[in-house]
């Protein structure tokens, strides 16, 4: 009987230890995700990307903002692509973060329609790990469309202002 009680207590301790370890792993993983998505400051691993693709004319725009650089590529479909690079400063990062927070871009959502579109365009804005799809086949509320459009326009205007080949 004594042996049974000892084994039972060991199995309970074993289960408690497993639950404890799982809880710690979950806590560490969730705090890492929260730290990654915390936009109070622009961490070195935080990225904002924007892309536009026109289907029939082949035009494309791609913007990538990282901690230390901005890469802006434009392709009209008729000429060679143009790529501009810009070194991001603390004030650049602050301006972009401030605008995105004011727009509450992390609250914007969209749904993608899987039906084929013959003559459409698409846009994608990723603010860290939060991505929003716009364009002909995307569905979103009017308020979200307005915020999404304003955010995309702001980023493109910022990039145009920093481009070396104005």
Description:
This protein has 2 domains: 1-37; 48-162, Mago nashi protein, CATH 3.30.1560.10. A hairpin with a 6-residue loop joins strand 3 and strand 4 (82-87). The longest helix is centred in the N-terminal third of the chain and has 36 residues, at 2-37. It is an alpha+beta fold. It has helices spanning 2-37, 90-103, 142-162, and strands spanning 48-54, 60-65, 69-75, 82-87, 111-112, 121-127, 130-135, 138-139. It has 3 helices and 8 strands; from the N terminus they run αββββαββββα. Helix 2 runs antiparallel to helix 3 (142-162). A 6-stranded antiparallel sheet has the order 4-3-2-1-6-7, covered by helices on one side.
CATH superfamily of the largest domain: Mago nashi
Number of domains: 2
Mean pLDDT: 80
How many β strands by DSSP?
Answer: 8
Would you tell me which CATH topology of the largest domain applies? Mago nashi protein
Helix count equals: 3
Major sheet size, sense and barrel closure: 6 strands, antiparallel
Strand content: 25-35%
Structural class label: alpha+beta
Distance between the termini: 86 Å
Quaternary assembly: single chain
Helix content: 40-55%
The CATH first-level class of the largest domain comes to: Alpha Beta
Rg: 23 Å
List segments where confidence is low: pLDDT < 50 over at least 5 consecutive residues: 31-39
Please give the CATH architecture of the largest domain.
2-Layer Sandwich
Order of helices and strands: HEEEEHEEEEH
* Largest sheet, spatial ordering of strands: 4-3-2-1-6-7
What is the overall shape?
globular
């Amino acid at each position: 009987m004594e042996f049974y009680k000892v084994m039972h207590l060991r199995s309970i301790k074993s289960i408690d230890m497993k639950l404890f370890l799982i809880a710690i792993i979950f806590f560490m993983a969730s705090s890492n995700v929260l730290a990654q998505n915390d936009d109070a400051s622009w961490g070195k691993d935080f990225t904002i990307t924007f892309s536009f693709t026109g289907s029939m004319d082949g035009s494309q725009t791609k913007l990538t903002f990282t901690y230390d650089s901005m890469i802006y590529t434009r392709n009209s479909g008729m000429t060679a692509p143009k790529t501009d690079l810009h070194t991001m400063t603390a004030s650049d990062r602050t301006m972009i973060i401030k605008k995105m927070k004011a727009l509450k871009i992390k609250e914007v959502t969209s749904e993608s329609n899987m039906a084929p579109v013959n003559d459409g365009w698409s846009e994608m804005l990723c603010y860290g790990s939060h991505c929003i799809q716009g364009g002909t086949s995307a569905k979103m509320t009017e308020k979200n469309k307005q915020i999404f459009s304003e955010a995309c326009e702001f980023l493109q205007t910022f990039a145009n202002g920093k481009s070396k080949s104005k």
